[in-house]
Amino acid sequence: LSDATNSTVYGSTPRVSTSVAPQRLFGSPIYASLNSEYAYLPNRSVSDGEVTNDDSHARVDLTPTLRVPLSRLTFLSVNTSANYRATYYSRSAGPTGGTVNDPYFRQYMALHTDLVGPVFTRIWDRPESTFAERLKHVIEPTFTVDLTSRIEDFARTPIVGDASEFVVGGAAQFTYGLTNRFFARSKA
User: Fold this and answer.
1) Distance CA 115, CA 80 (A)
2) What does the pLDDT look like over 14-32, one tens digit per residue?
């Protein structure tokens, strides 16, 4: 509510999501999962009881995913997943902002790879210590690669408040980090 005569209505109603947990395919090391969602996203401005702007639309989203763990080593973890995302919008973004009554079908592929390791561990036994009888230090370097295919007519994607709709197509993202963990086991 902006004031006594002007208000904005936004949100999602109804929203229905379904997920199929990862399932191993035919005894292979490949796992498949599926996520889907239907949402109606109201977004309208009202002034003196009259709708002055209506960017409301419905969205149907489907994302099948394949995941493959590429390493069985205890000190090195490599997981790769590929997904295809297809989204139908009942309206699309207009050339000057807002939405227009022209449906839009957006689709793209995404590849995600996580590499954790090599993991280094050091353990100290301290039987005489009053603080902890054992200390453990773990160092985990991480590296992540995300690749997203080009998105045809990406500017037609209606973005009305749900940040998950903003996807940069034709992009690569590289992330790296280092995690330090310290554990202490106190005396029983």
Assistant:
1) 9
2) 889 999 999 999 989 999 9
